[in-house]
């Protein structure tokens, strides 16, 4: 446990800054109660949290989930006294020790000046709802510069955002359809390592599985497309209101910055009959993309034996050791990987979850 005392001469106060134990029901309960008093909730993906206390009572808080700062709040009676700055400064120091250079946070528009003074910069916003900020002034610009190197000219430039956990014939069907209908297709593979198949494995499977298509480029999504930074509730399956705000932020960033960098004017998605979060995100795309000059093409999911082909179906068959059935719904390159020694650790985790 980290425990630090801060002496504030102006107020003649001794304040204790400490990390809380996320395994302690008492600590988590007190932390959650404080957040609730500030109309916030404790996200389930928090991996580190701190509180500033006076006489054992929380007066300010903050937390981290990877590169995202969360749960930053201060007691109403202590607002304007600089305690948010102390919390954020300590979290920045923690991130530095964890070798995390780029940090993100969501905040309400009225709080943007507070975080601007602490070195954060706006990278996207949803009017009246939220602002997404990053502490790296040129982080997004570097990402866009890297993307623009892959820009291809053409009248129809499409994009697909995928997770591919793992890569299936359903994913390949969608990519091949887009490739046949457009001059070029940009695939963004989600980088978040919250899937059973690691990000480097997933992107390798997609690249190998689409190597026969000469008008397809596969990109890492980075922190700026459906990530823990731009769309945290995509991974948390949070309330619809929060999902809506995060989804709009993610799409604002895509429409305003990412699509122009590559000249993207079309986006392909598969129908989503299974996941309500993805289904709602598709609805948001239908609302937001066309006014931004990006056509949305929704494609009926590919089926096998009267059932949609999905990555979750593949994982279930892996747990059942049914490689004959798997061979019917994944590309040969994916099947080869699943039968290789490199896949055994992933397969073991999948079977452990399906016991």
From TrEMBL:
Acetylation of prosthetic group (2-(5''-phosphoribosyl)-3'-dephosphocoenzyme-A) of the gamma subunit of citrate lyase. Pfam families: Citrate_ly_lig. It comes from Spirochaeta isovalerica. This is [Citrate [pro-3S]-lyase] ligase. It comes from the Bacteria. InterPro entries: Acyl_CoA_acyltransferase, Citrate_lyase_ligase, Citrate_lyase_ligase_C, Cyt_trans-like, GNAT_dom, Rossmann-like_a/b/a_fold. Residues 1-138 form the N-acetyltransferase domain. Gene3D superfamilies: 3.40.630.30, HUPs. PROSITE patterns: GNAT (PS51186). CDD domains: Citrate_lyase_ligase (cd02169). Keywords: ATP-binding, Ligase, Lyase, Nucleotide-binding. The keyword Lyase applies. Its EC number is 6.2.1.22. GO terms for molecular function: [citrate (pro-3S)-lyase] ligase activity; acyltransferase activity, transferring groups other than amino-acyl groups; ATP binding; lyase activity. It catalyses: holo-[citrate lyase ACP] + acetate + ATP = acetyl-[citrate lyase ACP] + AMP + diphosphate.
């Amino acid at each position: 446990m980290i425990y630090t005392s801060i002496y504030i001469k102006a107020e003649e106060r001794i304040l204790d800054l400490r990390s809380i134990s996320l395994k302690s029901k008492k600590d988590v309960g007190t932390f959650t109660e404080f957040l609730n008093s500030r109309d916030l909730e404790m996200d389930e993906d928090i991996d580190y949290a701190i509180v500033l206390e006076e006489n054992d009572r929380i007066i300010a808080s903050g937390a981290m989930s990877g590169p995202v700062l969360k749960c930053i709040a201060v007691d109403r009676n202590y607002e304007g006294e600089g305690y948010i700055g102390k919390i954020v400064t300590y979290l920045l120091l923690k991130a530095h020790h964890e070798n995390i250079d780029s940090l993100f946070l969501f905040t309400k528009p009225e709080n943007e000046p507070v975080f601007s003074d602490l070195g954060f910069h706006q990278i996207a916003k949803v009017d009246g709802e939220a602002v997404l900020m990053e502490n790296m002034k040129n982080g997004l610009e570097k990402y866009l510069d890297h993307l623009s190197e892959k820009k291809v000219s053409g009248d129809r430039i499409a994009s697909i955002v995928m997770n591919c956990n793992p890569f299936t014939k359903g994913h390949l069907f969608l990519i091949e359809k887009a490739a046949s209908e457009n001059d070029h297709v940009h695939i963004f593979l989600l980088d978040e390592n919250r899937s059973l198949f690691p990000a480097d494995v997933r992107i390798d499977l997609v690249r190998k599985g689409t190597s026969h298509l000469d008008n397809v480029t596969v990109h890492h999504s980075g922190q700026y497309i459906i990530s823990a930074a731009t769309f945290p509730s995509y991974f948390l399956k949070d309330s619809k209101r929060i999902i809506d705000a995060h989804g709009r932020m993610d799409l604002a960033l895509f429409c305003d910055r990412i699509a122009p960098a590559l000249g993207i004017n079309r986006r392909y998605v598969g129908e989503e009959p299974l996941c309500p979060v993805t289904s709602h995100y598709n609805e948001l795309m239908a609302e937001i993309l066309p006014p931004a000059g990006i056509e949305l093409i929704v494609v009926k999911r590919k089926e096998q034996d009267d059932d949609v082909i999905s990555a979750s179906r593949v994982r279930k068959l892996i747990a059942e050791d049914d490689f004959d059935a798997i061979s019917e719904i994944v590309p040969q390159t994916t099947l080869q990987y699943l039968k290789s020694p490199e896949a055994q650790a992933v397969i073991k985790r999948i079977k452990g979850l399906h016991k």
